[in-house]
């Protein structure tokens, strides 16, 4: 038996990895964003507000095979296992047992390998890119050139962070700029990625606006940087992350592939460290650096017996920790109040409570694309997220879901003030329900600026363009919808929103795309603000968010 394991340890490792991950994927309820990306798959497109479309394609394909949580994650599990395999192929000199120890020491690689989010396909295509780049630098054939270009496009179709990998690779090997094959790679990647760029153009580049501008904080907070640094240590491994990071950063690369990996490692961590000066950084944004982290730390630890010994001794503790988390993620285990942001327990409980209250009515969630998406997934009944001014825009501002709700009697779920007559939910903290008839909101109306709005002598001056769906025009002229006002919303540093009338209502919207100008009095105390347009809805104090945010300072 022991000799069989020694002869077949690679095959057994990958079979075990795949099966354990597959079982976990099938028996864990969806995380919030997974449900949201499942809605992506209901509306196939070349792009979405938050991300490119590959995650939607993977979910749609898997869900066609298994119409449940496993289907959502099926191809994610396959890509996760393939990523580990391809990463091992990047090692110039292999120590299989050391490689297994490193991979298993990074807890998020094991646990996160089931989650249907864009990071998993991105990590796979980053690994594939490096594998192809290694062969490309050895011999620049036309086949390898085209395949490398396709891998670049696949990275970008997964998540925009893939561009950093390309830039770091080019920086690591400047001679690439003198080779015509580099420009062929670029041309192939741009040609394949062109449909998504066109989608961005026709929708006003929402992803660029959101990721580069709307996610920035009003002011810098040292906690952003501290959280980022602590998060990266935890992400690299709960016990030995510091050792893997040290080993990877200390390693002196030799071949072109190792230089590209080292530049990518430094580039990713440095880029997001600087980005923490602009706002909060999600720990998972550096996941593409894991390929470099694993390969470079492996190459260094091979030469460091004492470091390698620490890694092996800590591994059982890490595996026990991962096992406990895996067990906890099963729905039969009760939810722990101390567990941070538990998204995979009791979803079916609150979904059932809301469904029972709705009694067949359409359901609208106020400012929660996560709840709307999970409700849709677990009831197979379309739900809508009305993104109000206290929330953020997302792809519910584009999908034709709101259209079917307008004029109907709906059950609205959200956080209400003490004045509204509401029924609190037992299964969702702070959430309550209220029935509205007729329902209306106009979050699919997009208001863009032709020039940056200016606040001069307590007068807001703004010129812009209103884009509205054609089927909304008759509604804009009918009562009670015609009184929906276009409002000026200013959010201060304490996240309190101040509203001012623009003098316009939806009755003024008569074309699919029309210009407008506003000059309205605005009286605000000194401070920093984010300005947006909002349109009132049938829900008091919950106008929809209808434009990107613009920073303003009142002296």
What Rg do the Cα atoms give? 26 Å
Number of helices: 21
Main sheet: strands, sense, barrel: 5 strands, mixed
- Described by its quaternary structure, the protein is single chain
Please tell me what the overall shape is: globular
Helix and strand content put the structural class at alpha+beta
Strand order of the largest sheet: 2-1-3-5-4
Helix content: 40-55%
Distance between the termini: 77 Å
Query: What percent of residues are in strands?
Result: 5-15%
Q: What is the total domain count?
A: 3
Number of strands: 14
Ranges with pLDDT <50 over ≥5 residues?
none
Walk me through what this model shows.
By secondary structure, the protein is α+β, with helices and mostly antiparallel strands. It folds into 3 domains: 2-203 and 219-328, no CATH class; 347-436, no CATH class; 446-554, Immunoglobulin-like, CATH 2.60.40. Helices cover 50% and strands 14% of the residues. It contains 21 helices and 14 strands. The chain has a 5-stranded mixed sheet, with helices on one face. Helix 2 (9-27) runs antiparallel to helix 5, helix 4 crosses helix 5 (69-89) and helix 18 (347-358) crosses helix 19 (369-379). The longest helix is centred in the middle third of the chain and has 24 residues, at 305-328. It is globular and about 80 Å long. The mean pLDDT is 93.
In short:
The chain is of the alpha+beta class. Helices cover about 50% and strands about 15% of the residues.
SSE diagram, text form:
Elements: H1 2-7, H2 9-27, H3 32-42, H4 54-65, H5 69-89, H6 96-105, H7 107-111, H8 119-138, H9 142-158, H10 162-172, H11 180-202, H12 206-214, H13 222-236, H14 241-250, H15 256-275, H16 290-301, H17 305-328, H18 347-358, E1 363-366, H19 369-379, E2 383-386, H20 402-405, E3 410-414, E4 423-424, E5 432-436, E6 446-449, E7 454-456, E8 459-467, H21 473-476, E9 485-491, E10 497-505, E11 513-521, E12 527-535, E13 544-545, E14 550-554
Parallel strand pairs: 1-2, 1-3
Antiparallel strand pairs: 3-5, 4-5, 6-8, 7-8, 8-11, 9-10, 9-12, 12-13, 12-14
Helix pairs in contact: 2-5, 3-4, 3-19, 4-5, 5-8, 6-16, 6-17, 8-9, 8-15, 9-11, 10-15, 13-14, 14-16, 15-16, 18-19
